[in-house]
Amino acid sequence: MPITGESLRSFPLLQGLSQSELEALACAAQECHYRARAVIFQAGEACTHLHLVRSGQVQLYQAGPAKLHILALLGAGDVLDAIPLLDDGPHIVTARAATPVVLYTIALAEAQRLLARSPALRLALLHLVAGQLRQYATQVNDLAFKQVSARLAGVLLAYARPNGVVVPGGGRRGRRLSKKDLAALVGTAREVVVRALKRLEQQGLIAQRPEGIVVLDRAGLERIHQAG
Questions:
Q1: What is the average pLDDT score of the chain?
Q2: Nearest-10 Cα torsion for 223, 225, 226, 228
Q3: Alpha-carbon distance 80 to 47, whole Å?
Q4: Beta strands in 14-158 (DSSP E)
Q5: Would you put residue 81 in left (φ > 0), alpha (ψ -120 to 50) or beta?
Q6: In whole angstroms, how far apart are CA 210 and each of 165, 175, 176, 216, 217?
Q7: What is the pLDDT of residue 114?
């Protein structure tokens, strides 16, 4: 299916663009498909494209010699690591498909030309990057100062849909979060997460059901997250 200006308008980052700008961007965009677990780009690599998630789930993570820490799970409408568009630096995270993924990609030079011409796009990108940096700063603070239960409560709140079911991609439709995903988001071992989930369930804050983890008491989880 060809990429159109209307299909690009569904991305929050691009909603401030004019129809002519969207059509020009659509002409420069390409559709790319990735299998589950395929690496899209790696931390430290030069940024060559703006990556927009059309469908599927993508992990953004950093990995050490023996540990992987997921910074975000993204879904349809999200942008993968937009920071290099502003500073011409390399990617600061690795992006990997958690499910089959369809991306719209736009060459870096073309995306930066549009940024130079469009104040609305520059402002939207600055808001996006500021939000990502705040999220990463919160994660650093939580890892440094909060107990596992508090970090887990924060992750469950961040990924809970309005009906309470916890899924990746900021509450969008998608697969449920696995215990391995949760452990990588919280920054601990899977076994530790399993025990922490059991404690939250015993307190009546969550339920573990076939459709996934369900948040029953948001206020209670927020108290645990804030208390640390």
A1: 89
A2: 120
A3: 11
A4: 29-34, 39-41, 49-55, 58-63, 68-74, 79-80, 94-97, 101-107
A5: left
A6: 11, 12, 10, 15, 19
A7: 87
